[in-house]
Every structure is written in structure tokens, then in C-alpha cells.
Amino acid sequence: MTVTVKSGFLASALSGEVTFLSAQEYQLGHSLITIKQVIFALSPVVLLVIHDDNSRTLLWRDSLSEKQYRELIVMLKREH
């Protein structure tokens, strides 16, 4: 699933064209990033993505369409 993330209501941590290859990894530019964990506690507003190196990225709900956000949550919840 490829989505284009626009700037959200608050400063978004993840922006640009992001391709979620699976629930375990996504591509941002030329970088392949492995997902260690996703925190869904605040999913009505934001997803907290924790990478293998324990760095964190916020994906704000208002940074993509409702449909894309729902589909992404379903995909990520299958594995996390």
C-alpha cells in the first residue's frame, strides 16, 4: 500500500511518500525501515511506530485519508 502523507494538524513526524510493504516494514524514500512495534492506544489520533533501533515515528490520523488510515490500521494490527 503506497500513501502520500501530507502535513497534519500538528507537526507530523512522518511525511512524504511512504510505502508500507507489510506490517513489518515500510519504505521512505530509498530507505527500508523495519517496524518493531506499533502502539495503537491513541489510534483515534495518532499511531506510534517503533523501529528495530528503538527510534519512534508518529503517524498522525489527519495526515492521510480516512480510508487509507483505516486500511493501514487493519494491516498493522494483523501483525502487532
Give a quick set of tags describing it.
80 residues; six-stranded antiparallel sheet; 41% strand
Which geometry do the CA atoms define?
Answer: globular
In total, the number of domains comes to 1
The SSE string, one letter per element, is EEEEEEH
Major sheet: arrangement of strands: 1-2-3-4-5-6
Largest sheet: 6 strands, antiparallel
Note the beta-strand portion: 35-45%
The whole-angstrom Rg is: 11 Å
Helix/strand class: alpha+beta
Give the beta-strand count: 6
Q: Please estimate the helix content.
A: 10-25%
- Mean pLDDT, to the nearest integer, reads 86
Number of helices: 1
Q: Residue ranges: pLDDT <50 for 5 or more in a row? A: 7-11
State the separation between the terminal residues, measured CA to CA: 17 Å
How does this model look, in words?
The structure is a single chain. By secondary structure, the chain is an alpha+beta fold. It has one domain. Helices cover 18% and strands 41% of the residues. It contains one helix and six strands. It has one helix at 66-79, and strands spanning 2-5, 16-20, 25-28, 31-39, 46-51, 56-60. It has a six-stranded antiparallel sheet, with helices on one face. A hairpin with a 2-residue loop joins strand 3 (25-28) and strand 4 (31-39). The protein is globular, with a radius of gyration of 11 Å. The relative contact order is 0.26. Residues 7-11 have low confidence and may be disordered.
